[in-house]
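URGENT: need a sanity check before tomorrow's submission.

F., can you look over the Arabinogalactan endo-beta-1,4-galactanase record below? I want to be sure the sequence and structure line up before it goes out.
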Amino acid sequence: MTTDRNNAVPRRTLLTGALAGTGLAALGATGAEAATGFVKGADISWVPQMEANGYYWCDRNGNRADILAILKTYGITAVRLRAFVNPSSSPQDGHCSTEETARFARRCKDAGMQVMIDPHFGDTWNSVGVQNPPAAWADMTYSQMQQAMYDYVYHLMMVLKYHRVSPAWVQLGNETNPGICVPTGSVRYNPAQLAGLLNAAHDMVKEVFPAAQTIVHLAQPQHGDVITNWLDTYRNHGGRWDISGFSSYASGAATIDAIANNIEGFKNRYGKPVMQVEFGGRWDRAERTKADLSYFIQKMRSIGALGLFYWAPEGYSPFTDYQMCAWDPATRRPTVAMDGFLV
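Structure tokens as predicted:
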């Protein structure tokens, strides 16, 4: 295909362009596969960049192997992949274009993994500390940005469909505590616009993949009042979503108990399933991370959560100085932290 997938395209013209004549129905791209049982997953968005820079992984016995095959030996059945709008070529902070993400999603699907897509609605990282719009959207009015959101998400979903990937879940932004595309979608100052932007994303996911489950994603569920205020505000302005997802890097049984209790409260208050979409622990304190991961999984199961994802277990130095991966940089083997999944 020749379409520039890094730029939004008109919502109703995509099929008349590069995808015209491909016979999407004949490709067998149907609704998302339903998740069954408790999902153990990992965000491994760095894999294509790492492989392009010569990195590889060994299994617990020291044998070089495909990262997806290694993850499956730990009972991991799902991956989470981020997507940036117009990313740079920076190994750590760029990549993750629509095309790169879709191609890697196809590889994961071929390996028998379910796929969660995590568009950040930015050109690079957005998280609890920053929510910048893509540069091309920065000077748009709200109505223009809402149309850009329709176009971008529809485009992302259609490219996934072209690659025969039906995502089980699509996360609507990443750690959106401040909102998205701030200040336009600020939860504090423009809550109706926040709901409008996320509803645009939700609706385009459902248009292409009716069975895909949409997730709103918030960090720090230990702050129950903050999360409740956000979800109340979003719901009261007509916000639509299927699953409430959370990030927490908690350590210690007492802390995890408190967070699990809060998450159960959110589940009951909003009548939505819940999922832990990010967890991690220090790679150099692997035994502790193993214990925390195991305990967190057990707590999430006990409250009826859908699953838990580890963030970037595949990373290791010198590709990244992130300290919460689960691979040993000296041996390229998984650390004992990964054994926490074996519960």
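My own read: Helices lie at 47-52, 67-72, 98-110, 142-162, 191-208, 224-236, 253-270, 286-302. DSSP finds eight helices and twelve strands in the chain. If you see anything odd, call me.
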